[in-house]
């Protein structure tokens, strides 16, 4: 065994697998000494762990020595592989795999070529260095255009960039592959909301100034204040309420996010505004 491959017993499972998977993926190999396919798979898994240089941890669990773990994971046949990622089992396979199949099985959970650029970009964002963050985002996307996180991070940086008006058509093309559902839906909807307010068009009539102020607040990261201004504008002008205000509020709700404590109240006020 080496630093990338360990034997795990039941008493150490939470520490060696559960906690460890929060920093890197853990591939659990449920095996048995009497299982010939297990013995054939063993060197292939160890070679994959060595090749990955610590990108994932291979945790070997002998089902005869750890019957409670085998039962908890409902292991009815070996070898069975289980991927633990961020504290939870996320994928499993029963049976032997080829080296290329092992790689494909693990690929969704391993850092890609954009990972280092993304890490540096997030650090730059935290430090308030928007120019460096944008450069890192561009490098990350260039390194791997199939990485959804790199694509969305680039959109975020482009929208935040202070170097002039963002290229709307380019940003729209970056967002085009995403739907409004799925694991990245919240991030996608927030970015679409930000894009909406970047393009916010002037309106006329009573309440128009409040509407424009709301757009300005939303575009600078103050959606709660923006929503109050939109609602006030809609109360003054029914036509505005049923058109621009309604659509602006929907986008501002996306900026707030589904978990925001005031979202339900704001939605109720919009419904009252439209009745």
Topology, element by element:
Layout: E1 5-7, H1 13-19, E2 26-31, H2 36-52, E3 57-62, H3 67-72, E4 80-85, E5 88-94, H4 99-106, H5 115-126, H6 130-143, H7 148-160, H8 168-175, H9 185-198, H10 208-219, H11 223-236, H12 238-256, H13 263-274
What does this structure look like?
The protein is of the alpha/beta class and 275 residues long. The protein has 3 domains: 105 residues, Glutaredoxin; 63 residues, Serine Threonine Protein Phosphatase 5, Tetratricopeptide repeat (Alpha Horseshoe); 77 residues, Serine Threonine Protein Phosphatase 5, Tetratricopeptide repeat (Alpha Horseshoe), CATH 1.25.40. Helix content is 57%, strand content 10%. Strands 1-3-2-4-5 form a 5-stranded mixed β-sheet, with helices on both faces. Helix 2 links the parallel strand 2 and strand 3. The longest helix has 19 residues. It is elongated, with a radius of gyration of 25 Å. The chain starts with a strand and ends with a helix. The mean pLDDT is 93.
Largest sheet, spatial ordering of strands: 1-3-2-4-5
Biggest β-sheet, characterized? 5 strands, mixed
pLDDT averaged residue by residue: 93
Query: Would you identify the CATH H-level superfamily of the largest domain?
Result: Glutaredoxin
What's the N-to-C terminus distance?
A: 69 Å
Taking pLDDT < 50 over at least 5 consecutive residues as the criterion, the unreliable ranges are none
Keywords:
about 280 residues; 5-stranded mixed beta sheet; Serine Threonine Protein Phosphatase 5, Tetratricopeptide repeat; 5 strands; alpha/beta; about 55% helix
């Amino acid at each position: 065994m080496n630093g990338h491959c360990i034997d795990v017993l039941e008493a150490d499972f939470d520490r060696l697998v559960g906690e460890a998977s929060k920093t890197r993926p853990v591939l659990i190999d449920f095996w048995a000494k009497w299982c010939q396919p297990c013995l054939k798979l063993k060197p292939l898994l160890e070679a994959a762990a060595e090749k990955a240089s610590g990108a994932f941890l291979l945790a070997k669990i002998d089902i005869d020595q750890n019957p409670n773990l085998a039962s908890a994971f409902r292991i009815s046949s070996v070898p069975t592989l289980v991927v633990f990622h961020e504290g939870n089992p996320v994928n499993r396979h029963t049976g032997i795999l080829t080296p290329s199949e092992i790689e494909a099985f693990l690929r969704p959970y391993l850092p890609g070529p954009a990972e280092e650029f993304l890490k540096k970009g997030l650090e730059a964002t935290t430090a308030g260095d928007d120019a460096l963050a944008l450069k890192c985002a561009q490098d990350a996307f260039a390194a791997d255009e199939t990485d959804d996180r790199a694509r969305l991070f680039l959109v975020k940086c482009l929208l935040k960039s202070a170097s002039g008006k963002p290229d709307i058509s380019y940003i729209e093309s970056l967002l085009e592959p995403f739907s409004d559902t799925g694991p990245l839906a919240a991030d996608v909807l927030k970015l679409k909301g930000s894009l909406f307010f970047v393009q916010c068009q002037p309106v006329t009539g009573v309440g128009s100034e409040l509407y424009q102020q709301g757009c300005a607040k939303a575009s600078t990261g103050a959606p709660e204040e923006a929503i109050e201004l939109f609602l006030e504008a809609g109360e003054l002008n029914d036509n505005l309420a049923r058109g621009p205000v309604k659509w602006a509020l929907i986008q501002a709700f996306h900026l707030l996010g589904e978990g925001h404590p005031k979202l339900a109240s704001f939605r109720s006020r919009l419904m009252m505004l439209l009745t």
